[in-house]
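BUG: 3D viewer hangs when loading the predicted structure for this chain

Environment: internal workstation, default settings.
Expected: structure renders.
Actual: progress bar stalls at 90%.

Input used:
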Amino acid sequence: MNPTTETTWPDHPFIAEMIRQTRAFDSYGVHEQLSPFELLQPYIVTKAQRREMPIIGDPDEEILARLKAYYSAIAMRIEAGCGSMATPLFSLSHEGFGRVIISVGKLLVLDRSLRDVHRFGFESMDGLCEQADTLVNAALSIIRQHPDAAAA
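Structure tokens produced before the viewer hung:
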């Protein structure tokens, strides 16, 4: 069992956005009865759990939905920070390799290579929030440097 408990989750606005986005990607309501804690628990993948996963593997639909929810939540936090629409775009092979970009106006504010998507996850909720903050802050910095392109 994963050592993360509800009481150890950080009080962070990104968690609320993750819950919204994860529920939004659950188009058939499969996870409707899950608590927020149960809903986000799959995003936590410890080193021990990662070691048990095969190095090469094809991501399933649930992992892809989690990945898209995560980057969509980042896009929403970027929107909240700059007031302009942020759009995530994904290009993934069936093997779990690809790229995610987030654009604001005509400005590319996030560009990440994706690999081993079947192993996607974070050591802890704190780690998830810290990584999200890093990406959002970097994107907002780019927007501040190029406001005309972001507004276009």
